[in-house]
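Standup notes
- DV: blocked on the single-chain target, sequence here:
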Amino acid sequence: MSPSSRPSRKKQKLNPDADSNSLAPSSYHQQFQNLNEQRQWLLKQIQRKKSELQNFLNQAHDIRSEMLQRGANIHAKWRNLDEELHQFFEEILSSEDMGDWESKEVQKWYRRLQLSGLISPRMSRQELIQTFVQEKFPFLDDEAAEAMQQMYEQQFEETTSGDRDGHHHFSAEDFSSENNESQESQSPETSRQIRQTFLRLAEVFHPDKVTDDEVQKHYSEIMKEVNSAYQQRDLARLLELERKYEAGEKITVESSSESEVKRQCEQLEEDNLLLQVQYENLKAEVRQMRNSEEGKIVTEYRRAQRQRWDFISQVLEEEKMQVNTLEAFRNLVEKLRDRKIGVKKFLRELQTL
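- DV (later): unblocked, structure below
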């Protein structure tokens, strides 16, 4: 359950009153409580999304392994048929007995088999798609042809996203690091400047350097501010205090308690914004994975488990049917290679497969 006030993408204002320049200590403490609740909620949601993503990846790995194990014979047969078909086509196309028209028709079907995913692509994807579009849509101008190529390229990606060994490729960011709030270390020059500024201010405002009780009390408050800024490595605040002193301006400081809570609020606010970005990125990653071809396989597998039917058996049965179709192609191409049929009969019989 989320807290009543979640952090937005835009930086939230610490000031609830537009006409006020500062928050009362009670308001700072309430703001700190709200921001801390937001932080805890965000950390919980981030961990939940990380677990969801990791569980998804683990199950994808398990499905892939089971497909490899149970479909080993089918995949081995596909690899053998694939290699034979490439070899047969190369032998046919290298024959000097074929005419130009016959060679072009055979090459066309060779490319189509690669584009369909029935056999592995040997030409580059760009060459396959470009040649296919030119042959199928010779009337298109360059702009229309390019749009058509992009459409077929997307289809080609989906068709060949996994190999015949059941390898479906998953990618995810490495979210193993839990330290999402670390800041870059300051440079030696900045650290040196912080220390030098602190020492100069300490030299001026050390309470022991004055005897007046009121001044001593005021200097003590200033030194609390100086010490706090030094501990926070807040060079800007130290320089501002030094500037006011050199300009002769009155230095007013909040109580140390209020000042510390205010700084904690500011830090929490920044941290929450970073956590919000991480949370949104994780949500987008999970959505992207679920919408991918591999994600749909995992989703379908989970649905099959709920309905108590064997998803992998069905997938392997479909692959077996594809291998049978490929075997029929292989036998037909072998007949063409051995000149048992001509190109025209080869093309006619292809239409029946």
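- Follow-up: The radius of gyration is 35 Å.
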